[in-house]
Amino acid sequence: MEKLVQMCDLFGCDLETLVRGSADAAASENDADYEPFMNAFSRAIAGGVALILLGVTLLVALSMPVGEGIMTMVFLAFLTVAVLLFVLYGIRMESFRREHPRVGALYSAAECRRANSVFAARLCVGLGAILLGVIACVGLAELGAAAWGSAVSDYAAGTAVLVGVTIGAPLIVYAGLQKSKYDIAAYNRENKPHAGGESLSDRIGGVIMLSATAIFLALGFIWNLWHPAWAVFPIGGILCAIVSTLVDKGEPQKQEHGDNE
């Protein structure tokens, strides 16, 4: 206590100002870390989704000229990198939330309005890319059969819709994550003890299983590989269990700590 009084004399302030200044400095440092991390998290998750969809697109587009076995290996490589991104940034997000349970009001009303406008634009571009892919798919399926034959036109049509989804879906994911970045109240609310809502591992698991469904449908409808393609679902379930184990491993201790309080 005596040293604190001496520090107050040294800086020419009272004890309350000295303590409050230290707390404000710590809060300011926490707030400064928020936006760079959220931007990196948004890019990583959207990039993982893009890698999975790009792998499926290449698998469909190049299986005929290059070879199905080679392109399957390429797809699995893309899938591996994407899953590692999901796991890595899932763990980093949980660590960040523990270290930064609360952040201050970082964004003004004008910045939030601008973010909503950017979100709407990104959402429209993403949806437009998907719809253009569907239009191209229908056109190639109808018109390409006469020019190239049904087999080639089916490959071209499937590739067209997948290209649209590969461009549009990651953009929509990125837009949603960037929009949620500006909802500071929701971030602080989710970090409260016993806060309800879907956990991060549940959200990542949803992305994995949706990707597995897309792969299953692509393999089934395009190559009629319904029987071997079902294996993507148990693989997806195993990956979800791995993510849940890694991401949520600290939650029981956190819950117990909250109960003791």
- Gross morphology is globular
Number of domains: 1
Largest sheet: none
Q: How large a portion of the residues is in β-strands, by DSSP E?
A: under 5%
What is the overall pLDDT average?
75
Helix content: over 70%
Work out the number of β strands. Answer: 0
Low-confidence stretches: 22-27, 249-261
Order of helices and strands: HHHHHHHHHH
SSE-based structural type: mainly alpha
> What radius of gyration results from the CA coordinates?
24 Å
Question: Care to describe what's here?
Answer:
The protein has helices spanning 2-11, 15-66, 68-99, 109-148, 150-181, 184-190, 200-223, 226-229, 232-247, 251-260. By secondary structure, it is mainly alpha-helical. It has one domain. The longest helix is centred in the first third of the chain and has 52 residues, at 15-66. The chain is globular.
What are the defining features of this structure?
261 residues, mainly alpha, 87% helix
Write a brief structural summary.
The protein is an all-alpha fold. The protein contains 10 helices and no strands. It starts with a helix and ends with a helix.
Please describe the topology of this protein.
Layout: H1 2-11, H2 15-66, H3 68-99, H4 109-148, H5 150-181, H6 184-190, H7 200-223, H8 226-229, H9 232-247, H10 251-260
